[in-house]
Structure formats: structure tokens, C-alpha cells
Amino acid sequence: MAEVVEEVIAQIQENLTATVTEGEEGGATNATGKTPSTPEGMALAYGTLVVMALLPIFFGSMRSVKHHKEQSTAFAKTGEKPDTMSSKDAMMFPIMASCALFGLYMFFKIFSKDNINYLLTGYFFFLGVMALSHLLSPVISSLIPASIPKIPYHLSFVQGPPESGDKKSKEKKYLIDYRFTTHDVVCFIVALVISVWYLLQKHWIANNLLGLSFAVNGVELLHLNNIATGCILLCGLFVYDIFWVFGTNVMVTVAKSFEAPIKIVFPQDLMTNGLAASNFAVLGLGDIVIPGIFIALLLRFDNSLKRKSKTYFYATFIAYFIGLLATIFVMHVFKHAQPALLYLVPACLGTPLLLAVLKGDLKKLLAYEDHPEEKPAKAAKNTNEKTKSKNTSDNSEEKATPPAKKETKKKEAKKAK
Q1: Residue 18 has pLDDT above 50, yes or no
Q2: Which of 184, 269, 287, 370 is catalytic?
Q3: What angle do CA 116, 93, 315 make, to 5 degrees?
């Protein structure tokens, strides 16, 4: 344990004192010791990576709007507040990510890399089946002919007292409450086949299918509640990415040792070696999902403005594209792994803020929330109910006094007679 920590500290010192000339001298070969591919192959690989990074952000953002509407309707019916990332969660995220990254690094240094990858592969196998099923469900449902019936099923597993007893559904706890159809079963089978293909062969196409499904689901389901939370998260991961890439070799080591679909890859030697190519260009899913959830938040902000154009979404989407091109360009020039968030965070944060200043929407942008707090509204309702109850009591008293006055007048009239 102490030897690993000392090795990391020594590596930090070496990287901080290293010169650029060392990187230039080692630029003849890549990090894996393989001969560089042709310029055409590199252009094809990097261009495909850019496209594969843009597609999950675009489609995940569109799907996040639908998911946000479903959350809002569910909150209106049940009162259950949707799960969103708070500012405290955003502050803790880079710290937790650093602990997880360094923990994996020590595991790979101490234990056998193959045994750890067996466990991680099995874990991501089940996650991949669920993610692919969720992603392919609308696509496969539209392709299935109408002649095949869509039969619904309900799978439930309940913990609680028997129905014959006095205590009924209030104390029941649904451990499993899952509804699905025959179309979902078809999606599950397709996802299972792709996941088994990856489990057995670790082919790069299967890896990309699982990685893209993780990215789309992450952008769709992970919601930032407001812009301030997104700024905290991106700025924290900006520092995290720079430190672990430039300061140490921890992230590069984990990325090379970690055999799981947490990255998208494309072979640079595809033109020469075909599908059996092995010299890959790599882009981590974090460089897609983290900016993607912020861009998806801007799309929901555009919808809240109720304007015809989606200016903030498309402007930041283009800025992400330019930042990704800048990352690839610098990486190609200096022949060294680059922290993509170093270029993506300024692009994704600066573009909407500058655009909001120019359009006069800065207050609206900073005040926007996906799910605003309902406490003030409830307090107003309570005060209105109290005032209504007071008014009704006052009216009832006023209505009750006239008959008493009439009776006293009758008595006085009788006495006078």
C-alpha cells in the first residue's frame, strides 16, 4: 500500500518537472508501442469518434425532455419529488470520482488485472442488457409488425401482511413492480445477444453499442436541477480531469487496464487490417455524458422559454463539437493524452452564459429550475385556507345573530302589550 502511494507521488513529481521535448522524442510511436496508422486511417477514426460523441448528446437530450414531462406529471399525481443532482452532490462528485479512480489504480497494481476485469465485465454485462433494452425499445417496437400482438405483463413481488388480515395495502411493500409487453421481451433478447457477444469476444463494435447505450441513458436520465449545479459539477470535473491526466499516470493506466464498455473506440488501422484492427482511438464516456447532461438542461430551458428556436441548445452543442475538435488537434500535435474537459468545459459553460448576456436572458437562465420547490405555493394555500375558514366562521356568526335579535324584539313586544 505504501509503495503504491510513493509510486504515485514520484510520478506526480516527474510529470510536473517533465519538459515538452520528452513528448516530442516519444512521438514516433504511440502509447501502446504500435506503429502509427496512415493519415487517412487516423482521420477516419477521429471523425467517427466525434460523430459517436455527438449522437448520444443529441438524442439523449431529446429523450430527456420527454422524461422530464413524465417526472412532472408523476410529481403532480403522487407528490413524489423526482431525483435530481443537488449542488452538494455536484461538489462531492469530483471527490468521490477521485477516490474511485485511485482505488481502481491500486487494485490494478496490487491484485491481478484479469480477476478484476472478470468481475467488472460481469457487472457491466447486466447493466448493458438493461441499458440496451431501454434504448432499443422504441426502435424495435416501431419495426415489429402489427400482426404480432402487444400483450402486457405485470411482474410483482410484494412484502407485507396477507390480504385476508385486518391490515391491508397500506403496509405492503413492492420489492419488484415491473410492467412489460411482448415487444419488451424482443428488445431484451436483442440486447442479451449483443451483451453475450461482448462478454465472449470483447469486440470493439459490441463495446461501442454498449457504450453508446450507457451514454444515451445517462444524458436522458441524469438531470441537473439548475444551471448553478451544472457549473459546479463541470468546474469540479475540470480540475479533476487536468490533475489526473497531467499530474499522474493514474487515469491513463486505469483506462488501459479497465476492460469494460466505459469508452467508445474506433480502430485507426481499419483500412489496413479490417475488422481485426487493434490500434484504437479512444474517448471516455465521461467526456460525453458530463457535458451532455448540461446541454440537455439547456434544451429544457429553451422549452421553458416557449420560443420557436432552441438557441441555447444548438449553440452549446456546436461549442461542444468545436471543443472536441480542439482536444483531438492538441492530442495529435503533442502526441500525449489530453483531458478532454480542459477544452469542453470552457466551451460548454462560456457559450450559454455569453449568449444569455447578449440576449438579456441571464436572470432567467440562472433562475431556471427543472423542478422548482413547492413550499411557497403550499404556504400560500394554507394561508388562503385559514382566511377562508375565518371568513366562513364570521359569516356563520353574522347569520346566527339576526334570529336572536328577532326573538328579543318579540319578547319586548309581548311585555309592552
Answers
A1: no
A2: 287
A3: 110
CA–CA separation, 70 and 62 (whole Å): 13
User: 399 vs 187, which has greater pLDDT?
Assistant: 187
Residue with cell 420527454: 66
- Within 13 Å and on the Cβ side, how many CA atoms surround 159? 4
**Is residue 36 scored above 70 in pLDDT?**
no
Examine the residue annotation and report whether 287 is marked as an active-site residue of this protein. Answer: yes
Q: What Rg do the C-alpha atoms of the chain give, in angstroms?
A: 30
Q: Which of the residues 241, 269, 361, 370 is marked catalytic?
A: 241
Q: Mark whether 177 is an active-site residue.
A: no
Judged against a pLDDT cut of 60, whether residue 20 lies above it is answered with no
DSSP 8-state symbol, 171: G
Question: Which residues in 235-270 are b (16+ Cβ under 10 Å) and which e?
Answer: bbbbebbebbbbebbbbebbeeebbbbbbbbbbbbb
Residue type, 357: V
Q: What is the pLDDT of residue 162?
A: 59
Q: Are strands 173-181 and 152-159 parallel, antiparallel or unpaired?
A: antiparallel
Paired strand residues for 181: 152
The three cell numbers locating residue 228: 448553478
pLDDT tens, 90-110? Answer: 999 999 999 988 988 888 888
Interatomic CA distance for residues 404 and 417, integer angstroms: 20
pLDDT, average across residues 337-346: 88
204 DSSP β-pair partners: none
Could you list the beta-strand ranges (E) of 222-361: 263-267, 280-284
pLDDT at 339 over 90: no
The span from the CA of 18 to the CA of 24, in Å, is 12
Length of the chain: 417
For 213-264, write each residue's pLDDT tens digit: 999 999 999 888 889 999 999 999 999 988 988 888 888 888 778 788 888 9
Residue 266 in 3-state DSSP?
Answer: strand
For 355-367, the pLDDT digits (tens) are 999 999 899 999 9
DSSP 122-143: HHHHHHHHHHHHHHHHHHHHHH
The span from the first CA to the last CA of the chain, in angstroms, equals 111
Nearest C-alpha neighbor of 283 from the set 215, 220, 375? 215
Extract the C-alpha cell encoding 381.
394555500
Pairwise CA distance, residues 82 & 351, whole Å: 28
